[in-house]
UniProtKB/TrEMBL annotation:
Classification via InterPro entries: CsdA_RRM (IPR034415), DbpA/CsdA_RNA-bd_dom (IPR005580), DEAD/DEAH_box_helicase_dom (IPR011545), DEAD/DEAH_RhlB (IPR044742), DEAD_box_RNA_helicases (IPR050547), DeaD_dimer (IPR057325), DEAD_helicase_DeaD (IPR028618), Helicase_ATP-bd (IPR014001)
Swiss-Prot/TrEMBL keywords: ATP-binding, Cytoplasm, Helicase, Hydrolase, Nucleotide-binding, RNA-binding, Stress response
Short motif (Q motif): ranges: 6-34
Ranges where the Helicase C-terminal domain occurs: 232-379
UniProt xrefs under Pfam families: DbpA (PF03880), DEAD (PF00270), DeaD_dimer (PF25399), Helicase_C (PF00271)
Gene from which this protein is expressed: deaD
Segments forming a coiled coil: none
Record-given protein name: ATP-dependent RNA helicase DeaD
Amino acid sequence: MQNENVTFADLGLTQSVLEAVQKIGYETPSPIQAQAIPALLSGQDIVGLAQTGTGKTAAFALPMLCQIDPTNKSTQALVLAPTRELAIQVAEALTSYAKGLNGFQVLPLYGGQDMRGQLRQLKRGAQVVVGTPGRVMDHLRRGSLDLSGLRNLVLDEADEMLRMGFIDDVSWILEHTPDTRQTALFSATMPKEIRRVASTYLKDPQEIKVARESSTGSNINQSYWTVSGTNKLDALTRILEVEEFDGVIIFVRTKTATVELAEKLEARGYSAAAINGDMNQALRERAIDRLKTNKLDILIATDVAARGIDVDRVSHVVNYDIPYDSEAYVHRIGRTGRAGRSGKAILFVAPREKRLLYAIEKMTGQRIEPMTLPSGSAVTDARTGQFMQKITDVLQGEEDLTFIDELLANYSNETGESPERIATALAYMLQKDRPLQVKFADIKPSREREGGQRGDRGERGADRGGERRRRSSAPEEGMKRFRIEVGRTHGARPGDIVGAIANEAGLSSKQIGQIKLFDNFSTLDLPSDLSGSQEQKIARIHVRGQVLSLSADRGPGAPRKGKPKFKGKKKQA
């Protein structure tokens, strides 16, 4: 079924689900929804080739809810997702679509949660379980998750589960589900391992392909700045000083960074707020509404929190942290240039992130031009222009200035100071915390060769060239290098490490940087703003039977000081 002129009412959804869709504000189904929903409602297995952002969650969630019996508390549907973030996102979507289903319960299961709480919730019953493979396996082995009544199974972002080393776990779970289940597999790509899973476990599936979204609007001016010679916050401030912006969305990678950057911008006089996945939907909607109604100028957001933002007045998108996924870049900058307006997208790129820039250019088919940071004189011009405009606005306004006129005339008569000198003193008093004249050294471009990026963060395989060469590559900005006590001799693979940390420590796989395997240990780059509790969780994780015992990497030949950090089962204070 083509989605041209098709509405949700044409797809065969039940009345309660259709009403929920209409209340949310969905009008016409996306291509993946228009094709997948009728197929799933008819009982077919499907393989959906679709990127994030194409509406695939609704494509499997809506027909799933149409087939759920809310009076039956047993688990009737299971969604497997690669990360806790996606599991939470899918569970939230199901909850919003199921407003009209009395008694409906959805339960997300992922590592890092209290197991006792999950066991209690499973005992109470949930018609839909959304979980990461590792935690679902844990419950199946315990016998706390009963899938004997399973009707629907969804594998979401299957290629990501493959990349994270979960594909054998997925196969194990599929072996422990009824043969009578209906299965939907969604993947952005179709490597041979995913094709094997589909041919082994799906019954004559209908394959649905959705064209990759690979272009950005021609009305969006795109540029990038190579991070060099100054910190990113100062660079961002310079840009905001000079650019004539209306509304701005700034994208960062972590929830912590949204709050920290919002606070720093507010301290510099900007009207800014953070939105991230830790905020409930009401708070996120309130922040977006403030942006819409001119009560806020800048939102700092993570990718997940910014989904669905549609605010016409957003004139600029700033990628403060470059996204690891090129598709995410397209979705980010699509927040500007709305309603036929022009928009601006600015990207910050560290020298070692140039390969990510090239990947974005290749995917979009567009060159992103380098930009030079505004100079001191440019910032001075911007500030003085704003200052002069304020004077003009007051003089041309309706304020009664008689008293101040008389006060300053008296001061001039008594002191002999000229009106010009008095105006100079008043201007200084007003602007002394934010001087009109700005002086700083202009930033020289990075000397690092653009072609010298091989072996950087995205290369997670082992570097067999020796410890010294491995240590010479410093972590990217915002990342810190750690050592973990598992390596090649233990049979560890990068996918094992990524999967374990992503599921147990509350990190997205995209927050995990370069991993290098050695014989008895490995190094990995993690966000430098990790909390102490996150470090402790990672330190206690087991990979291939080894406790990771996370510690700061001290360089080649440096012994570990003292006892391994957080090792064993001893509770931390």
